[in-house]
C-alpha cells in the first residue's frame, strides 16, 4: 500500500531478545518462520503451517533454514496465523458494554448515540465496573437494571456468567501488518477495535500473543444483534500481526494482562484520533476467556482468540454529535511495546484485495512443494 510501513516500523522494542512465529510470502508460497535472537528461519520443512509449528513448539531453530537477520528480511509479512480458527470475545470491558447498549438503543443511528451515552453512563457506568461477572452482586445488579428498564443482551454477556464468544473470520482470511483493511461500502458507522489476540494450541493452551484489529460495523450490529456476522465478517475485516510473540521467561500471560494497547488513526483530511485500551480493566481474565471458548469443543488446529477492547471511539469527526466513523484512506496504528505495531490503511471491503488463497489453494501449494508427502502419496495411489 502507498506509504507502507517497513518491517522495523512494526517490530516490538525488544525484538532481538524475543521468540516469535510468523508467516512470509516466499517465491514458492507462504512459509512459517521462527525468529530467534533477531534471526529469521524458514520452518516450512519442519512444519508447513503455523498451526503445526505452534503444536511442535518449542522447536529448535536448526530445524529450519536461516533467512538472515530479521531487519534485513525482504519477504512480505503475511498474517501470522493460517489454519487456526479466528474466535473473538465481545463486551469484555465495561465501556464496551455501554457502547453496545447505545448501539442497540440507537438502532445503529450515530446521531442518536450522544444523549443515550450520557444517560446510560450515569446509570450503569460505575455499577458495571464494580462487579465480577457471574457473581451474586452481578445478579443483583441485573435485577435492578431490569426493574429500571435498561437491561440489555449486551449487559447479560458483560456481567452474566457466560462470555460472548463468536467466530470472527474464516480460516486463512486474515490480513497482516501493512495490508489494507476493509469496511463494507454500505456502512455509515464503523470503527476499529484494537485488541490483543491469544494464540491457543490444539491442546487448548495459550502459547503466545499478537495484535489484532476486529473491524466492526456499528450501524449493522446496532440494528440487530443477529446481524453480527455481517458486522464482523467481511473481506479484509480482520488484521493480525506483525508476529506472534511466544510465551517464554521474558514474555508471559501477565504481560498480556497488564498491556496498554494504543490506537492512533490519521485521516486523509488531517483528522487524528488517539486512544488507549488498558488490559488490566478487562472484566474476565484472558485465560477464563480461553476456557469459555474451548467449552466442550476441540480445535484440532488451535485458534486465535481476540480478547476485546476497552476503546470505543466517540470523538466527533464531521458533524457534532455524530461521533467517529472510518473514511477510506485512514491509517490505523495499533501498538504495545512488547508486541510491536500493527499498521493498516482503510479501504472498502469491495476495494480491498480479493481473498483468493483459501484451503484448497494452500493444500495444492504445499503438495506441489513436496511438503505434504503422505497426502501426495494418497493422491498418487
Write the layout of secondary structure elements.
Layout: H1 7-10, E1 19-25, E2 30-36, E3 39-42, H2 50-55, E4 65-69, E5 85-90, H3 94-106, H4 113-129, H5 136-148, H6 153-159, E6 164-169, E7 180-183, E8 190-191, E9 194-200, E10 206-214, E11 216-217, H7 218-223, H8 228-232, E12 238-246, H9 253-257, E13 260-266, E14 272-278, H10 286-294, E15 303-306, E16 331-336, E17 340-348, H11 359-368, H12 373-380
Key terms:
17 strands, globular, 27% strand, alpha+beta, single chain
Overview in brief:
The protein contains twelve helices and 17 strands.
The separation of the N and C termini measures 44 Å
**Total strand count, please?**
17
Low-confidence stretches: 375-381
Q: What percent strand?
A: 25-35%
Structure description:
With 381 residues, the chain is α+β, with helices and mostly antiparallel strands. Helices cover 27% and strands 27% of the residues. It has twelve helices and 17 strands. It has helices at residues 7-10, 50-55, 94-106, 113-129, 136-148, 153-159, 218-223, 228-232, 253-257, 286-294, 359-368, 373-380; strands at residues 19-25, 30-36, 39-42, 65-69, 85-90, 164-169, 180-183, 190-191, 194-200, 206-214, 216-217, 238-246, 260-266, 272-278, 303-306, 331-336, 340-348. The strands form three sheets. A ten-stranded mixed beta sheet has the order 4-3-2-1-12-10-9-15-5-6. Strands 7-17-16-13-14 form a five-stranded mixed beta sheet, with no helix packed on it. Strands 8-11 form a two-stranded antiparallel sheet. A hairpin with a 2-residue loop joins strand 2 (30-36) and strand 3. Helix 3 runs antiparallel to helix 4 and helix 3 (94-106) packs antiparallel against helix 6 (153-159). Residues 375-381 have low confidence and may be disordered.
